[in-house]
Amino acid sequence: MDCRAKWVAGGETSDPIVISSRVRLARNLKGIPFPGAMSSKEGSEVLSRVATLLEQKAPHGYEVFYMAKMPQVERLALVEEHLISYDLANKTEGAVAISRDGATSVMLNEEDHLRIQALLPGLSLEEAWQTADSCDDFLEAELDFAFHEDYGYLTACPTNVGTGMRASVMLHLPALVESRQIGRLLAAIGQFGLMARGLYGEGTEAKGSIFQISNQVTCGIAEDEIVRNLKAVVEQIKAQEQAHLQKMVALQRAKIEDRVYRALGLLTNARVLDSSEAMVLLSELRLGVSAGLLSLPVGVLSELLVLMQPGVLQTVNKVNLDALERDIKRGEIVRRRLLEVLGREKQ
Amino acid sequence: MDCRAKWVAGGETSDPIVISSRVRLARNLKGIPFPGAMSSKEGSEVLSRVATLLEQKAPHGYEVFYMAKMPQVERLALVEEHLISYDLANKTEGAVAISRDGATSVMLNEEDHLRIQALLPGLSLEEAWQTADSCDDFLEAELDFAFHEDYGYLTACPTNVGTGMRASVMLHLPALVESRQIGRLLAAIGQFGLMARGLYGEGTEAKGSIFQISNQVTCGIAEDEIVRNLKAVVEQIKAQEQAHLQKMVALQRAKIEDRVYRALGLLTNARVLDSSEAMVLLSELRLGVSAGLLSLPVGVLSELLVLMQPGVLQTVNKVNLDALERDIKRGEIVRRRLLEVLGREKQ
Question: What ipTM was predicted for this assembly?
């Protein structure tokens, strides 16, 4: 199995601040209890009905992966690509259908029967919304979704009732972190019905200055309004990040350049590289691109962010490695890819 | 003024462990008190007699530099090149005559009237001894040296009486430092009449795992015996360093490679580089060459060891820089030189 998520592999974004945009829709089948309460037989029924539909009739074509049939390391890889959640990876009845272009994934039997996700590189919320919406339209024409006239789509968790929609963006905000503006800013977005989390969802740390920002409210607001609202706030945050970054560079250009190029030096030379350090160093490169100090396609930085994760690293390279072997392999992958895009020979 | 010391610029050594070899002879003029007790007029007399001789009659040709006429930064540069001592740099009556090939320097009015030094790259004690000896022969034919039939050459400090000779080598011993064998070893060399010091002489730290080892005894032993004795011990130490290094690499090759290449990555990318860090990183590269993990002419590492020092850096580049500017310039010099020898384009 190779890396398949479009935001990773197919991403031709030039935006160093907005890494990716996601829209997710929660849906459930009428007449079957939510996954938390359903029997194993009901779980299988959900799988067979939806998976078959997506594999055989959906436009674009989907491939279905059953959690029960996948080695742990491959499930981990899907989590790292943001195609499935940690929760789904551990569910026996869980599965995911992934579109051939890697833009859409439909999780089956996670918290809800269906979670339709569209995930694209850069700031592309409208496109992600259209992508998820067209998958939803196709499925709704074939399936009977649990829907209430007053409340909208019914979901396992009340916070998702209504549109069942969560839109989110993954942002790289190093200048706001360093200027200590990030706390104030993330507190303020609550007023717009938004919330912030780390790279791998709720409760995870914002390593490498990466944050996910998403809508909290799913009910009493139209889908396109959710998208418009989030996009407007993200553009504000982006402008603030740029302003703070320009200020940092204006005040201490040599030191910032030094940080960026040291990171490049380490990433193109280290022989043993753990994922925490790689995360921090890739963040420095992204800052360098953002500040105009370094010329590098930012898509490669997103790609490496995922390729260097332990699950993807072992899955893509078809190997089982212990911690030190992974750190060696990670160093090799990062080094080769960066030297390749920098047009230098292999070291 | 450019870098002139032969061990730095002309060094075509391939020995990563023995950086340089030095032989120094202390001599005084008969009938004039030692520098510590002489009048300013007597000091001038020493200068005029010896300087004129070396400039006008000596084989190879010498250029004389008077401390009183040199800016502080240029005197510092000569100290950093190991052509003069810290003490001489601050003496009003002090001067140094340097041979055109940069192999011989004669300090005037340091602790003794004359200190003839020959300094060569690699383990080349016999050659250094011959070089110093032939300069001594030339001078002795023209001057009357203070000499006692029983004691030999008379010197200001009793520890130099006799041959007036000190032979020393500069060694890079990272594996012995890391395996904590260095303390035991340096204690043991005392038994052979030898002593150890840091890179810039007595009382200085052994930064970057560089040590100077020299003879303590100058009396009651012939010059060639001093050289033979020191050389034999150095060859022993060198063998031990190699053995420990091979053991380190055998036990944890990936980690050692990682250290070496990270150092290379930082040195070829840093935009701000202070001298302590540069020293440590250059030591890592030298270790890499020594262990066969990195292919690089070691002469370049000796060259950079000196070119990056604050005095040489400003003198060679004809600039006066504050601390941050020096660190930026140092980064540039080290980066360009390394990329040049690695055959890569400028970054």
Answer: 0.86
